[in-house]
Amino acid sequence: MTVFDNGVPAVAKLDPALLGALRRAATDAKDGGVEFVVNSGWRSPKYQEELLREAVSKYGSEKAAARWVAIADKSLHVSGDAVDIGPSGAAAWLSKHGAKYGLCQIYGNEPWHYELRPEAIDDGCPPKYADPTKDPRMRR
Ligand SMILES: [Zn+2]
């Protein structure tokens, strides 16, 4: 799906300010021949729990899974404040130009995961957390 797919809840239920920034960035990127794909946007709490269950079985423990998938009530995807952008060329474009739109990579281990940081337009993006377990928002 793209950031323009209004009929898809994963896109339509994103925070409007985040979605606006993504659409501006996607439009400019497209001029340069780069197409954004939304691999994951808003997620229902139920879907987030499913992802976490899958990650626990893949990575062996809830602790290991936490480096990749947040619990539902902490996930920025469930609140509509995060988006996973692909393919890697689009993520690379965002890593170079995203700050101009207030779009920032948050985790060093997730080059595809972007959130809105309006202050980045003036100040640049804040330092990244190595992974979600280092993010104070993810503490239980
Ligand atoms: Zn993400």
UniProtKB/TrEMBL annotation:
The molecule here is called D-alanyl-D-alanine carboxypeptidase-like protein
Matching entries from SUPFAM superfamilies are given as: Hedgehog/DD-peptidase
The record ties this protein, via Gene3D superfamilies, to:
3.30.1380.10
Tell me, what is one Gene Ontology molecular-function annotation carried by this entry? carboxypeptidase activity
Where does the source fall among the domains of life?
A: Bacteria
**Could you read off the lineage of the organism from its UniProt record?**
Bacteria, Bacillati, Actinomycetota, Actinomycetes, Pseudonocardiales
* Protease is among the record's keywords: yes
Entry's InterPro entries?
A: DD-CPase-like, VanY-like_core_dom, Zn_M74/Hedgehog-like
- Which keywords appear in this protein's UniProt record, sorted alphabetically? Carboxypeptidase, Hydrolase, Protease
Record keywords: Hydrolase included? yes
Q: Where does the record place the D-alanyl-D-alanine carboxypeptidase-like core domain? A: 13-115
List GO BP terms, alphabetically.
Answer: proteolysis
